Structures are given as C-alpha cells and as structure tokens.
Amino acid sequence: MGLKIAPEHRCTPYSSKSYPYSQSVEKRIVESMGRIYGPYTGRCFKSVRETDIEHIVARSEAHDSGLCASGERVQREFSHDLLNLTLASPSVNRHQKRDRDAAEWLPDLNQCWFAKRVIDVKTKYQLTVDRREAEALSAVLSQCDSTDMIHLKCVDNQPEPVLEKNQPSALESNHPLAIWDENGNGRITCSEARKHGIAPVRRDHPAYIYMRDGDGDGIVCE
After folding, report:
1. Widest Cα–Cα separation across the chain
2. pLDDT in tens, 180-195
C-alpha cells in the first residue's frame, strides 16, 4: 500500500472554513464522469441541484491524518482536487458516509475504485491510515480485478429513498419531511426552512440530510 500506518491525530483544531471549495467545481466533476452520476450507488441525476459535492477522503478525516500540519495553500488545494471529488445524493453524503473512513464505511457500488482513490489521495498528500483502515482497504483491493469506476446504465432518476408525494402515509407525522417538506418532493428548501423558523439549519438538525449544503460547511440557509 505504501502508506504510513498511524493513529489519527488532530494536531490543530478542525474547521471546514480552512478547507473551502467553490461550487463551480461540480462542472469539472460532471465532465470527468461524462454525466451527473453517483458512483457510490449507481444513481443518475437530472441536475447537480440534486447532488452534493463529495470528498472521497473527507476533509476532517484528512485533517486528522496529517493535513492538520499543512499550510493553508495545501488545505485549499486538497479541497478542490478532482482526484478526491465525486458526487453523491445528500442522504449518502451527509447521513451515511459523512466523515467516516474506509474501515467505517464503504459504498454499495465501486468499492474497488473507492479504495484505490483513497490510497491515491492519501499518497498524494502524504496522509496516514490507521490500522483498521489499512486492513479494510487491503481486504477490498485483494478481491479486485479492476479499480476502474463502474458506470451503470441509468434507467430512471429515483431518489434514495423513494418518497411519493401521493403517499403521505409512508411518513410518520414526526418525520422531517412530513413536518417541513411542504411540496412533497422529498427535499426541504431554504424557503420552507425559513417559513417554519428552523433556518439556519445545522448538520445535527433532523432536516439537514434532506437539504442541499452547497459548500459542505455543515450549515444551510445561512
């Protein structure tokens, strides 16, 4: 693998503001894949408005794996590096993966591609892996014939999970979508959040995973 094995260590406090990135990078991600595609699940999207920019090696995980000792220039470069960027639905990016490493989370699809990308990114930025992460990455790659991204044929644009507007009984009355998603489209907009007095919405709020966090700073509708 060629990576240094060491426990994660937060040598300086982490702040997403130290790792900013422009929303315009989405265009470069789409161009690299040829379509608006989520490789973790094989889902296709009609618009980037339905996706989050996803850091394959999460910014906070990279920070704790050595980037905390790097300067501002390197941290900004990491945040914009196409090698470490892809697209994912908000539910996958914010609720399932978040800042987890490969020992804690693997995608349903493209595990071989994902593991190779993690290693490539960590090698480029001289980041460490902890013992459990190294074992998880090795276990995945030992079963791979190829580390190329698998592109599934898109047959529809169904969100994860499917929440039909004409099936309100599918949601409990205290579900975030039942409370704040007034148009029943499976997402909560800033307009809806402000109307209900919950804006700004932070990462730990139950509405957050159903909203679009364009800059990935953990706060929407600021």
Report:
1. 53
2. 887 766 678 888 899 9
Neighbours of 33 (CB within 10 A): 14
Angle formed at CA 156 by CA 150 and CA 162, multiple of 5 degrees: 105
User: Tell me: the pLDDT tens digits for 103-135?
Assistant: 999 998 899 999 999 999 999 999 999 999 999
3-state secondary structure of 4: coil
* Closest by Cα among 137, 96, 106 to 5: 137
Q: Check residue 154 and give left, alpha or beta (phi > 0: left; psi -120 to 50: alpha).
A: beta
State the Cα–Cα distance between residues 105 and 97, nearest whole angstrom. 6
User: What is the distance between the alpha carbons of residues 128 and 122, in angstroms, rounded to a whole number?
Assistant: 7
Over the stretch 57-99, which tens digit does the pLDDT of each residue have?
999 999 999 999 999 999 999 999 999 999 999 989 988 898 9
Q: Judging by DSSP bridges, how do beta strands 52-55 and 85-88 pair with one another?
A: antiparallel
- Mean pLDDT of the region 161-190: 61
Query: What CA–CA distance (Å, rounded) separates 128 from 158?
Result: 37
Cα–Cα dist 117/136, whole Å: 14
Instruction: State the first-to-last Cα distance of the chain, in angstroms, to the nearest integer.
Output: 42
Cα distance between residue 176 and residue 180, in whole Å: 6
The encoded tokens of residue 45 equal 């999207």
pLDDT tops 60 at residue 207: yes
